[in-house]
Amino acid sequence: MALKQEELLRDIQKCFNNLNVEEDKKETVILREREDSIDIRCTGFPDFTEDFRQIVKAGWLEKTPPKGGKIYQRRWVQLDSEYLRYFQTIKEVYSKRMVSLGSVDKVVSVGDSRFELHSQSRTFLFRAESTQERNDWVCCIEKILSDRKHSLEPRNLFFRNGSVNISFEGYMEMLSPRTKVYTLINKDKLFLFRSHEEYFQGVGITDIDMRMANVRDGENKRSFTLTTPYRAFSFMVDSESEKQRWSEALKECVSRALSCDGLCESIWRVPSNRMCADCSSSMPEWASVNLCVLLCEKCAGAHRSLGQNVSKVRSLKLDERVWTDDLIRVFLLLGNGKANQFWGANIPPSESLCSSAHSEQRLEHITAKYKDGKYRKYHTLYGQQEALNRALCSAVQSGDLLETLSLLNCGVDINCNTGIPEFPTPLSLAKRSGQTVQAELLMQNLNSESFTPVDKDASIRSQSGYLFKTASSAKPITDHKTKTDFSQRWCSLGDGMFSYFKSEQSHHKCGGMKTSEIICLSVNSPGKHGYEHTFELYSEEGRVYLFGSDDGSIIKNWIQAIAMAVLPPALFDVCGTCDRLGRLRCTEGNHGIGWFCLSGFKLQVLLEDNVQIIDLRKLLTLNLSDSAGSMVLVWRGGPLHLLADRRPHFVGWQTFIQQRSGAGDQPLSQQQLTDLGVPVIIDRCLDHVTRYGLMSSGIYRKNGVNSHVTKLLERFQNDARSVTLLESDYSVDDVASTLKRFLREVKDGVFNGQENNDNWLRAAGLENRAEKIKRYQILLSNLPDVNRETLKALIHHLVCVQHLSDENQMTIRNLGIVFGPTLFHTDGTDVTGSQVVEELIQNYCSIFNVSESDLKRQLNMTSVILNKHKSQRPLSRTPSSTICAVYLEKKTEGAEVLVQVTADMTVVKLVSVVLELKGIQQASEEFWSCYEVLEKDDMERTLHYQERVLPIYFSLSCHSHLLIKRNHYIISIMRYLENVENLCKTGPLRVCEVKSESSKTFHSRHCELSGTTFRLHKEQQGSQCEREYPVKELKLYHGCRSKMHPPTPWGLILIYDKQQWYLCCENEDELTEWTAVFYSIQYNGDIWPSW
């Protein structure tokens, strides 16, 4: 036996030595490569591909290192019409090497899957994954090389003919990695080379796009730093004067790159684009990206007055990021000429606009042309909604942009149903058809309302008219206001002021505020007050103003006008469509301020220059972070901290956000959702059953404990995000029954109402299978998104359940019997619902458009994992455990009781085990508890009997321990609670806020413990609340901290996060009463087992 072990060790050692040799070889090759190329790693990566190059081909290839070497290195390779570049990884922005195709003489296939690139200085050898892949690369490179040979002009080996425009060049020392490089500025890029000779040979290292670069001084007088979004490049030169010349040249290059003259020149290549679409001024530098017209500066100003929902004005020179390749193609393919065939088809000569027109004429003409559509060429299908929708679905699959523009502005529904479940909207249909330019035109018009009648005065410049208002208030308006509470006022918005007067003729202002002082605008639901339509304005001073009218269009115009006057331009697109908008203090915002627009469940947030859209239903968590009321919204984009504000607008924001974040008693679309759009309660239940119940016999047919199901469902409906399902806490039958009860009770059900239920049941009666499946697909596509994703997730789960029917006995028929009545809200006497469920399971792939191979692979993987879990389960029945030291009655050295504590052991079980080990039997009137003792602070906390021991034990410091002793207060506490009718406690206590060890000052405070909150008032009850804490988040300790010289020995210590409050009672009875109420609130009355 010993000999075999020795031989095994020798073999392992030999293998280890061989690996070392291979590693040494590999290291030598890597060093050779480093001598040739420079490793320029990015510290940040782009969120999307910002490729200004037209990539011909890209992919992974293996290449040999320079100067020989047998080990290939895997590189991401990109080929465009000028260069072949290779990168360390697919994410890197800066190449390790770039080879100008002007320096390449030929490309040659070698062996099965390799090819060689022969340049004038060296040969590059690459290896593809297959011969076909190699042939594709060779074909692409040969095509580019043949195109270059047709040029007869003298060649620059690195830059293409006509593209040489070097403004500065020379050697610099790069500091990280430290190496000397030859550098030159050509047009709007900085190129790096190993040497001047390599430049002439047509081989470089990388190029840096100067459009997003910034130049600043370095740490010493001869260095400077070039900063890009992806990394910083530090350079050093020989003298200060040379550094000055380089800095000036680079800054000039940045300025030149940002001017975007190339974009203007590209779009102006179309002759009609060289004149303004409205007044014919030359060389327009502005555009309306949704109306597809180019504009001069004066006409662009008039377009802005129409609002972002009518005309989205962008600059050709300043708004560089807007101009994607597809958007540029829209303007090249349409141009002002074709666009005006639609917009200006019927302009009479007398109403045409000239370049010298004054601003009023310009605004009047542009409003008539684009907003009112006065001169447009009406589509032949105008007024026939279904025919227009069908025409749009056809047009987006073709290259006819003018037809699409005409349809979009003649009443078509841009989000109409295409009738194809896989591609339900015209936008998805255009993308499927490869019509990316059509898709760009659709995206630019998604939020446009070109012909919605809006009063002309509803612009940002001015708005006036009669409204009805109530007296302003310093508190939120929660009570119903009748019409008698309102007074008519003439209101005016303009020149940065919102004012109101007694009448239109009155010159004396009754009140008003600057628009910059409006911090919130909130739109009330119709009928909330006496006037049908109302909105509220909140000022910086903390005042609330309520305005109303019975005319909804008047209120809509005012909301739009005020929103445009208050919001930053980046949020103009949502003006008039918000339920609530304004600014809030936010740690992530610019200077601590963020702008927020809430519309339905969508919260648009402007932080600095970035607008983010948050679906409040899909929040990961929503917390009131402290007693002051600050909110923390955690979504997939990260946390968002809304700081508390005592002004009345903040309470409204809290209410709105909590309401819109999903409620458990609402239809599926209004529930808390996962990122995939499935209600959290359904997702958590399905996940739990999948983990622990797929092998359980009769899963879903067996019922859980009714009280457990009711309690769990209540928890989910209160806040589904906060519910964590552990195997030790809930049986799979409890969770499965909770899911069934929720699906049966949820409003409108999974199929979205009784009418839709009937449609699904009728479809089951079709005899032709193909026709039936097609009908199911149509019904599925007509469901709201949340209902459709929920049904798909549920049926996928049931497919997994029936796949293991040999183990769980739940065949398709059994699942149909269970879920038919559940989903269709019937009593089960009609078996049609069960038939529908069975057919959805049987035809899951066809109806839900799922690949059968993918489903099979998932099912096989599930079977393997569950079978492995099943085989290992008997070995892991005993939970992991830890030996813990616990003291009995008092702590003395060497007197600890060592107990094996499992992960699921509770405090009551620990007490029982310790007493049994010590041979102590509890008398009838004797109660034992476990305490967390903080020795340093002379205080202890009674642990609740259901708390788990291990988390507490692991959190103990070196100056604390667990102590089991008799509980002398529990009888008094329980008897007191038996005689209390209203569970609350108020009264004066001596209070000291413990900020340090020197804190010794006690003040008399009126304390209130009621509901779920503990409050401190400076004076008697009803005075201003000084502090407020949620009871369930507090920890209560007892003790007399003698170092603080408390006025009485009966002390309570409340700990919330890092705050501590020491409360002194007048006597022991008062201490018992406060403790009793606190425990009862914190543990929902469940203080002691079987009392």
UniProtKB/TrEMBL annotation:
GO biological process entries: regulation of cell shape; signal transduction
Subcellular location: Cytoplasm
A single Gene Ontology CC term: cytoplasm
Main location: cytoplasm
Residue intervals of the Arf-GAP domain: 261-387
Key words, A-Z: Cytoplasm, GTPase activation, Metal-binding, Phosphoprotein, Repeat, Zinc, Zinc-finger
Residue span(s) of domain PH: 54-146, 165-255, 460-567
Domain Ras-associating: 880-969
InterPro entries documented for this protein: Arf-Rho-GAP_ANK-PH_domain, ARFGAP/RecO, ArfGAP_dom, ArfGAP_dom_sf, PH-like_dom_sf, PH_domain, RA_dom, Rho_GTPase_activation_prot
One MF term in the entry's GO annotations: GTPase activator activity
Domain Rho-GAP: 671-848
One Pfam short name: RA
PANTHER family per record: ARF-GAP WITH RHO-GAP DOMAIN, ANK REPEAT AND PH DOMAIN-CONTAINING PROTEIN 1, RHO GTPASE ACTIVATING PROTEIN AT 15B, ISOFORM C
Listed name of the protein: ArfGAP with RhoGAP domain, ankyrin repeat and PH domain 1a
This protein's encoding gene: arap1a
